[in-house]
Amino acid sequence: MNPAGVFVPGTTWLHRVSAGVKVGGLFAAVLLVLLIRTPLLAGLAVLVAGVVLASARIPWSVVRGGLRGLAIVLGVLFLVQWWASGLDDAAVTLGRGAASILLAWTVSMTTRVAAMLRVLEVGLRPLTWVGASPERAALTVALAIRCVPMVLDAVRQANEARSARGARPSVSSLAVPVVIRSLRMADGLGEALVARGQPRD
């Protein structure tokens, strides 16, 4: 199975749209999503994001695991937010998170990393005015987008392992394996960056 979030070749309109339009559209869409204040609009945002993902025609075998992980993560977040702030706030938080993640995931699977990096480097060039490196900033943003589905897949794997052991659902049975898997992924990415000549820090 293709790892979650890796570019999936295709001929859909999303695959044909330039990386610059997709990355710019992603940032604009996420900013709009963060302005949502009502459960109705939050639900509408999730629906739109789902339609966008479906239009990319990514094979179900690729997206299935990520969607399971997303459902688990957002389900826990929803319950915590409901307990802390009430049902309406929980619904809005859930909608914002789901819509943003689905959009980032879609961009990740329909855009080659090299193309995304080129766009981000151009867009982040003003950082040179304050002494920062646009190349490193672009790599950081690209990795952040790429790691969203990777973490969701780690959640799915941890939940499946818990179910196979017959363990009851709990924060520790899910959080600890996810943290371990995430650290392993981070270490692997660090080694890959060192191999490519990029500093890890």
How is this fold's topology laid out?
Layout: H1 13-16, H2 19-34, H3 39-55, H4 60-85, H5 87-110, H6 113-123, H7 134-165, H8 171-195
Helix pairs in contact: 2-5, 3-5, 4-5, 4-7, 5-7, 6-7, 7-8
Instruction: Summarize model confidence as the mean pLDDT.
Output: 79
Number of domains: 1
Derived from helix and strand composition plus strand pairing, the structural class reads mainly alpha
CA radius of gyration is 18 Å
What share of the residues does DSSP label as strand, in percent? under 5%
H/E topology pattern: HHHHHHHH
Give the % helix. over 70%
How far is the first residue's CA from the last residue's CA?
31 Å
How many helices does DSSP assign? 8
* Rough outline: globular
Structure description:
The protein is globular, with a radius of gyration of 18 Å. With 201 residues, it is mostly helical. The protein is 77% helix and 0% strand. It contains 8 helices and no strands.
Question: In a nutshell, what does this entry contain?
Answer:
With 201 residues, the chain is mostly helical.
Give me some keywords for this one:
201 residues, mainly alpha
